[in-house]
């Protein structure tokens, strides 16, 4: 049994990444062992005007990230054929940028032990479309707003330069069209 292929699903909140991840899990699970892993960056959402508390939240967030990636790359990597990541380091860097931790290349260098996924999908949608989707949800966080999503989108554009194997998916397409595009790319990993 080899090491799992890691596939990351990234994009601003409301981009459709979770929908596409679920479709891919169902598709791959027919003949492969699949784990869905999720990187939470919620500590960043709690940052505010208290510099001491913000520093603690950044440190806590950093420890969670290191623990998450260690687990993916060492523990779970040999128990599954595919690990589908609902968010990945790319997402963390994009939202770190949104919350003014703008030295992305330094953060990326500090996390040098984190391997790039075998494939990363960035689901690109306009901010107003993402907000329309978010507004249809029952639960919405205070940070799901025009300013944060716009800044996160800018963060993605900056952070994507630091990664390889990133595929931009126009998620203004129908769910089915986007899924076909993702599936075609993943077929390359299955060969």
The level of helicity is 40-55%
Q: SSE order in H/E notation?
A: EHEHHEHHEHHEH
Q: Categorize the overall geometry.
A: globular
CATH class: Alpha Beta
The residue-averaged pLDDT reads 81
SS element count, helices: 8
CATH superfamily: P-loop containing nucleotide triphosphate hydrolases
**Spatial separation of the terminal alpha carbons:** 16 Å
Class by SSE composition? alpha/beta
Secondary structure: elements and pairs:
Elements: E1 5-10, H1 17-28, E2 34-38, H2 42-45, H3 51-75, E3 82-86, H4 89-98, H5 104-110, E4 119-124, H6 127-135, H7 146-159, E5 166-170, H8 175-190
Parallel strand pairs: 1-3, 1-4, 2-3, 4-5
How would you sum up this structure in a few lines?
The protein is of the alpha/beta class and 191 residues long.
Task: Please tell me about this protein's structure.
With 191 residues, the chain is of the alpha/beta class. The protein has a single domain (5-190), classed as Rossmann fold. It is built from eight helices and five strands; from the N terminus they run E-H-E-H-H-E-H-H-E-H-H-E-H. The protein has helices at 17-28, 42-45, 51-75, 89-98, 104-110, 127-135, 146-159, 175-190, and strands at 5-10, 34-38, 82-86, 119-124, 166-170. It has a five-stranded parallel sheet with strand order 2-3-1-4-5, covered by helices on one side. Helix 1 (17-28) crosses helix 8 (175-190), helix 4 (89-98) crosses helix 7 and helix 6 (127-135) crosses helix 7 (146-159). The chain is globular, with a radius of gyration of 16 Å. The protein starts with a strand and ends with a helix. The mean pLDDT is 81.
């Amino acid at each position: 049994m080899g090491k799992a292929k890691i596939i990351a699903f990234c994009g601003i909140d409301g981009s459709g990444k979770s929908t596409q991840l679920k479709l891919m899990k169902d598709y791959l699970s027919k003949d492969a062992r699949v784990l869905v892993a999720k990187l939470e960056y919620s500590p960043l959402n709690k940052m505010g005007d208290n510099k001491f508390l913000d520093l603690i939240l950044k440190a806590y967030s950093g420890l969670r990230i290191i623990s998450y990636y260690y687990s993916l790359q060492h523990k779970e990597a040999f128990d599954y054929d595919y690990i589908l990541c609902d968010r990945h380091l790319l997402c963390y860097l994009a939202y770190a940028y949104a919350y003014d931790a703008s030295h992305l290349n330094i953060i990326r260098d500090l996390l040098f032990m984190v391997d790039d996924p075998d494939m990363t999908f960035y689901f690109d949608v306009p901010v107003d479309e993402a907000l329309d989707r978010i507004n249809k949800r029952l639960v919405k966080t205070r940070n799901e707003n025009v300013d944060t999503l716009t800044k996160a989108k800018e963060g993605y554009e900056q952070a994507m330069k630091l990664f390889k194997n990133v595929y931009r998916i126009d998620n203004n397409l129908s769910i089915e069209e986007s899924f076909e595009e993702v599936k075609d790319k993943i077929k390359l990993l299955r060969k």
